[in-house]
């Protein structure tokens, strides 16, 4: 699925020099490299504030806790088709997690499904919507902004763990929007990024980042990430230890410089996959009227016309997914399933009260999605090998 050594070989000298500088300075916790990276990341996301933390999961928790969404009488709506942290961060903050189903085209949280859930809740109970920019594609932000405008006080918090560098182009002129391209991290009231090693912007371990345009949320997040301290050893609230290591910040600062070209390479590789699959005659391109069905073969990823996708993952749908994956494993081709069991069916989340059949689009996607190898250093002949192996399976 990934070959980290290829990227490291290309930037080894810069990374090692950055690490050595931290070792020489001996400032390992919230050193100057953390501030430098926060400033660079904020600039990349077009926001005034970026707060480094220990993980993407902590970034989600910080966003919620900074917004004081921390009571069991408060609810947050998110997607059941995501990594566990999208829901666990809500519960960890102390609020109630509510699910809404996904759009079968993009796998992102469906605004229509969210509106249905909101209609069943008492006024003011839902404090935030937490859409996930799944696989590196922004959720339909125009639709979520419309929902927010209809519910005063409702916050939009982006789970952008897989989407650093992704962007959304607002609706064209005449719809009340200027049509500009806005990066993930600047769309909502706050956003959370993960720099887990498999991400398109990856640390050498765990690391995360919260972004916001709000000085109030920024100030509270910085306080909460350091045990609730505004002054050393004076604790205003019960916070947490979630500081970004200086070594990780130094590595991320180097990698951030290469991210735009890396993301463009991912888009190019995705386009090449599409061409290879279509040429092989074993795939269809999904459409709004026919998003998921195919007799035998694969359904290719869909990119929303206003989304700038970064293809953190290249994910196909295959009705015989498990058999296909077994076949590819036998050919020495790595794959992964993101995610095999929706969150509403996870054992740990049974107390939320959901059951099979509650979110059919999420359950269907969980049974069919398959992520294929994609990373900037992947070669096109390797892509050909992948497609040929899948063609052999269907032949």
From TrEMBL:
One of its GO terms (biological process) is polysaccharide biosynthetic process. The active site is at 199 (proton acceptor). Belongs to the DegT/DnrJ/EryC1 family. GO terms for molecular function: pyridoxal phosphate binding; transaminase activity. It comes from Granulicella tundricola (strain ATCC BAA-1859 / DSM 23138 / MP5ACTX9). It holds the Pfam family DegT_DnrJ_EryC1. Gene3D superfamilies: Aspartate Aminotransferase, domain 1, Type I PLP-dependent aspartate aminotransferase-like (Major domain). The keyword Electron transport does not apply. This is DegT/DnrJ/EryC1/StrS aminotransferase. Keywords: Aminotransferase, Pyridoxal phosphate, Transferase. The modification N6-(pyridoxal phosphate)lysine is found at residue 199.
